[in-house]
């Protein structure tokens, strides 16, 4: 597998503002779970997609691209997703997603203020820095160590992360 795959999606880009607007009015009761508490924040926030119906558009696109990369059918994939809000000053610590049966990981960028942090992926002591842009999917191996540099902007950044694997029959 290549280090990463990049895919821009105009249809997803077009719903980003609606997602941000609906996300901004959620309260604590709207989240199913928050996990990975590091540096004063939860890195992962889980939500039922019915709370923001436009997420379905992003999820379906992500499944389509994941199926292409994995050379399978979208309906043969299982997935999990979560939102990642990075306030000014926040970072996402180095980690990988190879805990279970994942075959592919992904991040999708919903709101990306200038200087709000870069995706850094590491392989064989080499680091690749990827500047995030709204409407972009970045797919990579779940075993790939990745992190996000400090959000130096004055605004929150919002992204959506995925793990994909094959459905068990």
Give short descriptive properties of this protein:
169 residues; alpha+beta; Jelly Rolls; 5-stranded antiparallel β-sheet; 4-stranded antiparallel β-sheet
Walkthrough of the structure:
A hairpin with a 2-residue loop joins strand 2 (about 30-40) and strand 3. This protein has helices spanning about 10-25, 55-70, and strands at about 5-10, 30-40, 40-45, 75-85, 90-95, 105-110, 120-125, 125-130, 135-140, 145-150, 155-165. The model has no long low-confidence stretch (mean pLDDT about 90). Helix 1 (about 10-25) crosses helix 2. Strands 1-9-6-11-4 form a five-stranded antiparallel beta sheet, covered by helices on one side. It has a four-stranded antiparallel beta sheet with strand order 5-10-7-8, with no helix packed on it. The chain has about 170 residues and is an alpha+beta fold. The protein is globular. The chain has a single domain (about 5-165), classed as q2cbj1_9rhob like domain (Jelly Rolls). It has two helices and eleven strands, in the order βαββαββββββββ. The two termini are about 25 Å apart.
The main sheet orders its strands as 1-9-6-11-4
Mean pLDDT: 91
- Please provide the ordered H/E string of secondary-structure elements: EHEEHEEEEEEEE
Quote the distance from N terminus to C terminus.
25 Å
Shape: globular
Largest sheet: 5 strands, antiparallel
Number of separate domains: 1
CATH topology, what is it called?
A: Jelly Rolls
Number of helices: 2
**Helix-strand category:** alpha+beta
Beta-strand residue percentage: 35-45%
From the 3D coordinates, which CATH architecture would you assign? Sandwich
Name of the CATH homologous superfamily: q2cbj1_9rhob like domain
Rg over CA atoms, rounded to whole Å, is 15 Å
Binned, the helix content reads: 10-25%
Q: Which spans of ≥5 residues are poorly predicted at pLDDT below 50?
A: none
CATH class: Mainly Beta
How many DSSP-defined strands? Answer: 11
């Amino acid at each position: 597998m290549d280090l990463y795959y990049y895919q821009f999606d105009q249809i997803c880009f077009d719903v980003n503002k609606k997602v941000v607007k609906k996300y901004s009015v959620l309260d604590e009761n709207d989240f199913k779970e928050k996990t990975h508490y590091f540096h004063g924040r939860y890195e992962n926030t889980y939500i039922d997609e019915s709370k923001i119906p436009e997420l379905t558009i992003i999820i379906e696109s992500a499944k389509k691209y994941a199926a292409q990369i994995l050379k399978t059918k979208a309906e043969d994939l299982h997935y999990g997703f979560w939102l990642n809000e990075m306030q000014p000053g926040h970072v996402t610590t180095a980690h990988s997603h190879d805990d279970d049966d994942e075959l592919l990981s992904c991040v999708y960028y919903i709101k990306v203020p200038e200087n709000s942090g870069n995706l850094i992926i590491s392989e064989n002591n080499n680091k690749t820095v990827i500047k995030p842009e709204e409407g972009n999917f970045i797919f990579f191996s779940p075993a790939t160590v990745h992190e996000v540099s400090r959000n130096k902007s004055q605004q929150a950044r919002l992204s959506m992360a995925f793990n994909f694997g094959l459905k068990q029959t």
